[in-house]
Amino acid sequence: MTVHPPGPLWTGRASNRGQWLLAVAGAACVALGVELAVDSNWTGGLAPLLMSVIGCLAVGLLILFGTLAFVHVAVTVDAEAMEVRCGHIGLPRRRIRLVEVTSAEFLPRITPQQWGGWGCRWRPDKGTAVIVRRGEGLELRLGDGKVFTVTVDDAENAVRVIRAHLRALAG
Fold it and tell me: How many Å is the maximal CA-CA distance in the chain?
């Protein structure tokens, strides 16, 4: 039995400041919905007012929470796993045990367009990904044939750490 020191072997983050603009737009939609509900001189009837309030609140909350979840990502590699946590509350979260990893690759240029946008993504030809910005990231190939990609700063060092751990597991 091998005893590993506690704590992370590598940590990294990636942020997308542009997402804050979308979050502000979401907050503005929520504020408009509240304003309509509280102080409205709407003369078109109750049903259109109710639909407008609900629509503004729903769209605003969807935009707000959807963007805040992917403003940044934190990635930690320890002796057992790589963990990816999104946003300020760490959700969604993905933990991949290193014994399941067959290879790790550094990707110098990942774009949201390659994945269909920002956020948690799945594409049948590419696997799953957490994309918070364009730029460098890493790709893990798993023993079950699945692929996981994440954009993160200093991804090249993360790949070195993961590869060293994979060599230690194999040897």
Answer: 76
